[in-house]
Amino acid sequence: MRLLLIAFQFLTIIPLPITLRCEKDDLGRSTAFFPLVGLAIGGLLAGVNWLIAPWIARPLCDALLITVLTLITGALHLDGLADVCDGLAARGSRERFLAIMKDSQVGAIGAVGLVLGLLLKWQALVAVPAELKWQALLIFPLLARFGQVLTLTGARHARQDGLGAAFIQGGGWTALFVACATAASAGYGLLGGRGVTALAAVCLLTLAGRIFFQRKLGGLTGDTIGCISELNEIAALVIIAAVPQIRF
């Protein structure tokens, strides 16, 4: 339970009624519960959708849902998306890429990447069939947070400090197994073949992103993990919207 609360505390800005103490490896071990936190975030989105969908048009409703998602996560991974876009635009050395990502200011390319990311996520959600919307709201944050665990496990870290290094050092294959079992069960239980296909797409995109950043930077950082997570949210929604139902 303590590790679940640590994961919840890291991935959201929702205040907890208790103060938690983190040991050295607790951040990494808490990744086993990242998909459950994603499911909780999805449940909150589904609840908000149930409240507002009957009163406003679908595009506006979905824009508000993306806004709620951004607020409750503190835009944590959107910051990573913007920083990675700025780093890629610089086209410099590994050291320059890392220095740009560490800079708190967002450049023009980062702002464009941020806008495009939010726009794609919004339109992908709009494209989800109405009869699958509540399932999609539950599953896409869960799959993206499973992708974070897959990104971290067994990876190299580009910096010795920072949150990325802390998660990579503390994570392990047991956490990945638990996270994978949660994601696969929820994906199939909620969306059947669509859910499994979305999970497979997240795995492929995650591994491709991990390989790219490890070659480019020699390892991962918190920003690169956040960037991959944002891309996974978009990819999961696109798959749910575009792939016909597959029955096993």
Question: What is the N-to-C succession of helices and strands?
Answer: HHHHHHHHHHHH
What percentage of residues falls in helices of 4 or more residues? Answer: over 70%
Rg over CA atoms: 17 Å
β-strand percent reads under 5%
Helical segment count: 12
How many β-strands, per DSSP? Answer: 0
**Low-pLDDT residue intervals, each spanning 5 or more residues:** none
Q: In terms of topology, how is this protein built?
A:
Layout (H helix, E strand, L loop, with lengths): L1 H10 L14 H4 L4 H19 L5 H15 L3 H15 L3 H9 L5 H20 L5 H20 L10 H8 L2 H19 L1 H25 L4 H21 L6
Helix pairs in contact: 1-3, 3-4, 3-8, 4-7, 5-6, 5-7, 5-12, 7-12, 8-10, 8-11, 8-12, 10-11, 11-12
Structure description:
Helix content is 75%, strand content 0%. The protein has 248 residues and is an all-alpha fold. The protein has one domain (2-242). Helix 5 crosses helix 12 (222-242). The chain is globular, with a radius of gyration of 17 Å. The protein starts with a helix and ends in a 6-residue tail after the last helix.
Write a brief structural summary.
The chain has helices spanning 2-11, 26-29, 34-52, 58-72, 76-90, 94-102, 108-127, 133-152, 163-170, 173-191, 193-217, 222-242. With 248 residues, it is mainly α.
What descriptors fit this protein?
248 residues, mainly alpha, 12 helices
